[in-house]
Amino acid sequence: MVNLAFSIGDLHFKNPVLTASGTFGNGSEFDDFLDVSRLGGIVLKGTTLEPREGNLYPRMAETPSGMLNAVGLQNKGIDYFEKFIYPRILNYNTNIIVNINGSYIEDYIALAERINRLEKISAIELNISCPNVKMGGMAFGTNLASAREVTREVRSVYSKKLIVKLSPNVTNIVDFARVVEEEGADSISLINTLLGMAVDVVNMKPSLSTVTGGLSGPAIKPVALRMVWQVANAVKIPVIGMGGIMSASDALEFLLAGASAVQIGTASFIDPQASVKILEGIENYLIKKGFSDLKEIVGYINRDN
Ligand SMILES: Cc1cc2nc3c(=O)[nH]c(=O)nc-3n(C[C@H](O)[C@H](O)[C@H](O)COP(=O)(O)O)c2cc1C
After folding, report:
1. Closest Cα to atom 4, ligand 1: which residue?
2. Which of 101, 134, 104 is nearest to 211 (CA)?
3. At what angle do helices 105-116 and 144-157 cross, to 10 degrees?
4. Dihedral (C-alpha) 227, 71, 276, 123: value to the nearest 10 degrees?
5. Average pLDDT in the chain
6. Is 130 a catalytic residue?
7. Whose C-alpha in 10, 65, 87, 265 is 20 to 30 A from the C-alpha of 207?
8. For 126-165, what is each residue's pLDDT tens digit?
9. Among the options 71, 96, 121, 130, which is catalytic?
């Protein structure tokens, strides 16, 4: 009835609802709650070349309308991923995207080369925006020259779709979007978490072991929406919006502002079925409003309607 599909170049997505990295495990953790294959895609948790322990506890703290995390890219590394996780996700009938991270450009290149060989993985999400690691991460995404270089190098070794995930912790997000587009990104996703902190007044110490962490959830939605709108109006490649999307109405705000698709993050911690409920809500909205294709509403507020 309603065409919900969108695409990044020749990569087809059956609908615009994806899950955000670090909030949906490797998909299979959610099998008891929903049919993962209903989603447009899933972005797997951040993967690195070598296994990482992540940061010391406490590394999560609840804040007004949101949460802070400083997980620090805990994962078992690419060897483990290839051997044990990859075989488990082969049967999902949806796009599987790996979120890649590194301390050095060479790490990103080596990871991209490895993932290029995995047939089921349709795209990489290049995370140059993690605020919770000592080296790499956000350092790449908050410096224009580094963002340019890492995108260029990964592009040169990765032949499938390259999504670059931007950090909101910059003065002018549009500069970063333009640079990664110039260097061959096929799509841009944003935003990663905003750098924040909280203090435990009872114990008189920082709430997180790392003192600062990444803020996510409804608290960041207006900032995310503003940045998505700015970027969608500045680049030609599809933009994937995220940041505090808890409901179909929130997702629709991003689509109307110019995002071609959305990712659902923190919402999945509160309701593991949030992503499919949001998908159903988007479809119902289109039907109610009399639209037959999602594309009719993408960037609607930016047109002379
Ligand atoms: C616990 C947690 C872990 C995360 N891990 C990653 C990660 O590994 N890689 C990444 O690019 N983003 C990571 N993120 C950021 C989310 O993918 C998303 O960009 C951010 O949370 C904003 O969306 P939200 O407000 O809907 O959660 C993480 C977020 C949370 C809350």
Report:
1. 22
2. 134
3. 30
4. 70
5. 96
6. yes
7. 265
8. 999 887 777 777 889 999 999 999 999 999 999 999 999 9
9. 130
Atom of ligand 1 nearest to the CA of 101: 9
The token pair at 243 is: 């940041």
Query: pLDDT digit string (tens) for 21-42?
Result: 999 999 999 999 999 999 999 9
- The structure tokens 């350092």 sit at 139
262-296 residues labelled b (16+ CB within 10 A) or e (exposed): bbbbbbbeeeeebbbbbbebbbebbeeeeeeebee
* Among candidate residues 48, 4, 44, 7, the one with its CA nearest the CA of residue 24: 44
Ligand 1 atom 6: the closest Cα is on which residue? 22
Given strand 66-69, what is the order of strands in its sheet?
Answer: 60-63, 66-69, 212-216, 194-197
Ligand 1 centre to CA of 276 (Å) is 18
- Pick the closest to residue 128 from 202, 183, 82 (CA basis): 183
Q: What is the pTM of this model?
A: 0.98
Domains for the chain: give ranges and CATH numbers. Answer: 6-55+72-198+217-302 (3.20.20.70)
Q: Which residue, chain included where needed, has tokens 């700015």?
A: 230
Beta strands in 139-257 (DSSP E): 161-165, 187-190, 194-197, 199-200, 205-206, 212-216, 239-241
For 74, phi then psi, to 5°, come to -60, 125
Contact between residue 70 and residue 132 where contact means Cβ atoms under 8 Å apart: yes
Amino acid at 99: N
Ligand 1 first shell, C-beta below 6 A: 20-23, 45-46, 69, 71, 73, 99, 127, 130, 165, 192-193, 216-217, 220, 242-245, 265-267
Q: What is the mean pLDDT of residues 215-242?
A: 98
